[in-house]
Amino acid sequence: MKTVETVEELRTLLRPWRQEDRHIGFVPTMGGLHAGHESLIRRANSECAVTVTSIFVNPLQFSPSEDYDRYPRDHARDALLAEAAGTDILFMPTPEGLFPASPLTTVSVAKLSEELEGASRPGHFAGVATIVTKLFNIVQPTKAYFGEKDWQQLEILRQMVEDLSIPVEIVPCAVVRAEDGLALSTRNSYLSPDERRAALALVRAARAGREAAAAGGDAAVAAARILEDEDLVTIDYTAIWRDRMMVAGWVGRTSYLTENIAIREEAPRP
Ligand code: PAF
Known about the structure:
Elements: E1 2-4, H1 7-19, E2 24-29, H2 35-47, E3 50-55, H3 75-85, E4 89-91, H4 95-98, H5 117-120, H6 124-139, E5 143-147, H7 151-163, E6 169-173, H8 193-214, H9 219-228, E7 233-241, E8 244-251, E9 255-262
Parallel strand pairs: 1-4, 2-3, 2-5, 3-4, 5-6
Antiparallel strand pairs: 7-8, 8-9
Bound molecules: pantoate (PAF).
The site of pantoate has 10 residues, from strand 2 and helix 6.
């Protein structure tokens, strides 16, 4: 694995694959890598001639009151994990390298970015869409891999790629869960043991919502009931949105967690 910091180094390294028209796979991350990221990298590695993983804690997607400063930044550990999963090129730009001056351009996907998580975190999805567009322009991947864990993000990026005719295939990858059922997320590392137990209410709520929907009931109400019973969870939303049962809330004082499951069982990927 080669690790590079600058856009120039990355472009030089990728030139042979681009010239030969081979598949360039891209896994954008903010670090804090876990088995969910690992699954994206493994999939990219199995489908592409070269796999690029980026690690960049994107300031554009954090509001001033959020966890930008305390977001995990264990680069040595992340590099080991990225390499073991099959990354060929690890792109780790610095904030000054990527943004020598504050950018004046924003990419934002209307409507979809204002709903659900977007309503509680104004500007968050524009920050994601802007950095992903910039990274796509730098890496110019043919395939980019995103977890279904962040379903709203995935739908927004699909829309963005479609609307702007960005020549990349977005590849959605299934949620990876811990043994107890909680979806893996870098932010799970903030949870105390009590909060971690409480976070499972989000999983139960998503399942209850799906069951209610299947029985013709009110999915949002069924899911909300479960969350209301858990003292350590402050509910943000429960809703069926684009074929998924979506729930989110704050666990403890600060950790904002989301969960989603398909409302219909999906056939496993061949
Ligand atoms: O999903 C994430 O980790 C981030 O939102 C992303 C896509 C890497 C953009 O910073």
